[in-house]
Q: What sequence folds into this?
């Protein structure tokens, strides 16, 4: 399974970007898909997640500005980022937690995309 993240770039304060994360490969079910971000020397932090049932969760810093969505038919997730601030500058990674039948049970698998750089200039 591969995750391909795209949509990063350079934008001015107050601008918008839309990130995409496309999953490919042998996928049975993507349970949770999310976006995380990381700056040099810092840990990778959750930005937003969305479940297969479309329940969403956002970091406090992005609530009201970012919106996560998913297209289950195409195994793709999106992060619409509005009113961007310089502190949103980071490498953004998508993560997918997959469910897969394993004998009589269900196993989980975590995958990460390669990251896409978002730079917000002041």
A:
């Amino acid at each position: 399974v591969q995750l391909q993240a795209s949509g990063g770039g350079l934008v001015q304060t107050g601008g918008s970007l839309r990130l995409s994360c496309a999953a490919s490969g042998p996928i049975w079910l993507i349970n949770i898909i999310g976006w995380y971000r990381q700056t040099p020397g810092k840990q990778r932090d959750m930005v937003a997640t969305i479940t297969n049932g479309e329940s969403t969760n956002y970091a406090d810093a992005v609530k009201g500005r970012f919106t996560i969505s998913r297209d289950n038919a195409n195994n793709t997730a999106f992060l619409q980022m509005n009113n961007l601030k310089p502190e949103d500058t980071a490498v953004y990674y998508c993560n997918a937690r997959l469910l897969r039948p394993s004998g009589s049970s269900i196993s989980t698998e975590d995958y990460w995309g390669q990251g896409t750089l978002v730079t917000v200039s002041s």
